[in-house]
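To the team - NDP complex, inputs and output below.
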Amino acid sequence: MGRVSGKVAIVTGAAKGIGAASAKALAREGAKVVCSDFDEPGGEALAAEIQRLGGEAIFVAHDVTSEAQWENVVAVAEKRFGGLHIVVNNAGIAPEGLPIEELSLESWRHTLAVDLDSVFLGCKHAIRTIKKTTATGAKGSIINISSIMGLIGWPHTADYNAAKGGVRLLTKCAALECAGAGYDIRVNSIHPGYIDTPLVRNAIANNVGAEDGIGPNERMEMLVSLHPIGRLGVADEIANMVLFLASDESSFVTGAEMVVDGGYTAR
Ligand code: NDP
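Output:
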């Protein structure tokens, strides 16, 4: 019996990084997983890998900023797997990496759309759909991937700081609404430190947010030094927290901010 056996999950941004690790962990522990992403080849490959490993997964192409596409994804989960218990709002993009005085309104709005509007839409359609499943006695869980950048400020990341800070409080509001309405849906945020994923590798390669004169190697060393544990995290370490929050092991945890950051914010 797996830790999430019998549950149906949607994981956004599942083609790679934290989303892929989370989808695999949930499937390994018995969930039926709808993997969504707008990277279609990557998402198809991930769903096929889960199936090869004996898990149940399908891929649905999904831009998380589109409400119509959210309606489609939850409908697919219900039709294919008979309900919905878990939504992991994971898809996101890195910040533009510019100081506020140089950041365009267009760029600000794009980051906010992908990193915050998407989580609002995800919570909205998750609550509407999961509450139908939990009305039959099952338990639901919504997991929003924020960041340590939703807890502390960092220069040149105003758009990302604002989006991830927004995810933190949106999560608490959703948790209170679900508890108040008696839906049996818990809602929590996860705040990862730097995790070695394509997002971080690309940001380092493109020197996003770097001070003048700092190259990629120095940037990586600097990021490592910010984590008292002495390394960046790996995606499975966030997936382990996703799994805990998705399972009924965390039945008294709601509205919480789970920090998984190798000690980054401890000092
Ligand atoms: P990755 O870039 O490795 O993976 C994110 C996935 O989401 C990609 O497949 C990406 O597609 C997809 N995606 C991006 N925009 C959209 C969209 N509009 N609709 C659907 N899918 C989309 O990121 P990570 O795994 O590193 O990050 C996952 C989450 O964790 C993000 O919310 C991120 O902010 C957060 N996080 C990550 C940290 C880290 O250090 N890695 C630290 C703290 C938080 P494509 O590649 O084609 O853009």
